[in-house]
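#struct-help
A.M.: can someone run this one for me? Single chain, 182 residues.
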Amino acid sequence: MGTPRHNLALVCGVLLILLAGLGRVGYTTEGVMADIPAPPSADRVTFGPDPLPEHPAPALFDAEATVTWDRDDVWVAVVNQAEYDRCQDAPASALFGICTSNDLNALAMGAPENREEGMTWTIPEGVHWAGYGTVGTPSGSTLDLQWSVHVKLDGAPTALLLLLGAGLVVYGRPRSGHSTPS
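D.P.: on it. Structure tokens below:
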């Protein structure tokens, strides 16, 4: 049996290795946003009232969001703060072709034909806005979105945890003792 210090190192090392493995598997959360009002005009982007929650630690965690929706005449998009500002300052009419599905500089965009598979987006650092629009004149009064976000430990923190864990396991491993006669 090892010393208490070696036993503690062994236990901590195994826990760090388990934490690294569980961190790479990750965690998924899901939700539904129901009865979102339909866009007021054809093909013009409509943004939510608030920006999306910011990624709290992009250096530590990878986060990937998937969104599906229930209407075949709707597209969804995610834009950065600069594109949101450009669209807020643009003329409101879609006649100008500004901030429509053809003009929008989106980080991620889901077309109506992809509504069942959804739109997947790897969430980077910064402020982002969710928007949506219709192809042609809106055919319904509301929209329902289903979303999921999968978060997992990034590669560098995983490697660090594994390295520290392996070092502690090697330090704390049981050793065969030598008995010398007295």
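A.M.: thanks! The radius of gyration is 25 Å.
D.P.: also worth noting: The longest strand covers residues 142-153.
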